[in-house]
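Repro:
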Amino acid sequence: MIKTMEILAGWIWDPVLSLIYIELGFIFLFLTRAIAWRKSLPVFLKIIGSDRSASGDRMVSHKKAFFASVAATVGIGNIAGVGTAIHLGGPGALFWMWVSALFGMCFRMVSTYMTIRLCPEDETSLSFATPMIYLEKYMTGIWRFIPQLVALLLLISGVVLYNMVQANSLAQAMHNRFDVPNLFSSLVITLCVGIVILGGLQKIVDYCSAIAPVVILLYVLTGLMVLLFNPVQAINGLGNVFASAFMPYSIVGGVTGYTVLQSMQFGISRGIFSHMSGMGTSAFLQGANKENPSAGAFMSAITPFVDTIIICSVTGLVILSGSDWQNTTGAHLTVLAFESGIGSFGKWVVVISLIAFALTTIAGFAHYSERCFKYLGGKKVIWYRTVFLMVTFLGPFLNLKMVWSISDIIIGITIVFHLIPLLYVTLKHNREICTEMFDFAEENGAVQKHLDFS
C-alpha cells in the first residue's frame, strides 16, 4: 500500500503537475503585471507599521492575520519538508521550492483579493473568508460541485494530512534525538492543540501571532550563524542548488543520483506543502477583513516569501553545508545539520522551533478545516474538534512515508480544482485587480504613477 501511494504521488507530480503549477504561475504573473513581486514588500512595510484593529468575532486585522497566517504556514514543511525534498530530489530541489514560492505569491494575492472583494455583509455566512466565496459565484452549472470538492479536500488536508505530518514529524524527532516515547509526545501535543482550538478563531490568531515572530527570528538567526561559521561549505551548497536544478546530480563514484525531474518534483511538491500557495488557504485569515482587498492581497503575497525564500532557504543551506543529506531525511536531518554546525545550541533551537511550528500549523489548519466542515453542512462542531484531536493523537504512530505520499496526492488534486477556476476568475477581474492594486500601492508610496492599461 505504501509503495502504491508513492508511485501514484510520483506519477502525479513527475512531471505533470509540477509543470502545470509552473505554467499557471507564469500566466498569473503576466496577468497581474508581476505586482506581487514588484510592490508587495514596500506596501507590507507600510501596512505593518500602521495597521488598525478589526472588530467582530470573525474579523482579523491585517497585521494579526499576517502573523497568524505565517505561523500556520511555517511548520514541519520548513524543517522536515526541506530535509525530505533535498534527500529525495537533491540540492536542486531547493531551487524549485523557491520557484514554487515566487509563483505562490501571485496565487495568494489574487485569492485573497477576490475573497475580500466578494465578502458578504453577514460575517456568519458559511462562505465568509473562504475560497468557496468566489468559487460559488463563478463555478456554476456543471461546475457547481467544485466549491464543495475544494472544501472537502481542504477538510481532509487539515484533519488528516497537515495534522498527522506535524504531529508525526515532531514525535519522531523527539524520539530519535532524546528517546522520548511517542505516547508521551502524542499526549502533550494533543493537550496543547486542544487548549488552543477550543478557544475558537480569536484564540488561535492570538496564540499564533504571539509565538510566530519570536520563534521564526530565533530559528533564522541561528541558521545564519551556522552558515557564517561554515562559509565555504555554505557557498558550495548554494552552488550545488543552482547546478543540480538544471542538470543531473552525481553521487559518489560518478553515478547519477538525482535527475532534474526529481529535483523539480520534490521541490515543487514540498514547496507547496510548506507555503500552501494555490490551495486557497490564504482566504481564511487574510480574507477575514472587509477593510480593503488590496491591503489584504499584498499582505497575503508576502507569506510564501517569508516561509520559503527566507526560512526554507536557511534550512536548506544549513543542510547542504554540513550534514549527510544523502543518507538521512526529515526533521532528524535538520536537527543533525544545526547540531553539527554550532553544537547543542543549534539542536535545541531546532527542537524548540519544531514544537512551535508544529503546534501553530496544526492550530491554523484546525480553523481552516472547521470552516470547511461547517460549509459542507456540519453542525456539531464539538464532534469535529474531538475527531481532529483524535487524529492528532494518532499521528505519531503512523508510517510517515504513507502520510507524505497521501499528502502529495491530495495537495495535487486541490491545486488542480482550485487554481484552474481561480485563473478563470482572474481573467474576468484582471483589469480591476491590477488597477486597484496599483492605485493602492501608489497611495501607500510604493509607486509614483498609475499603470497604463491602454
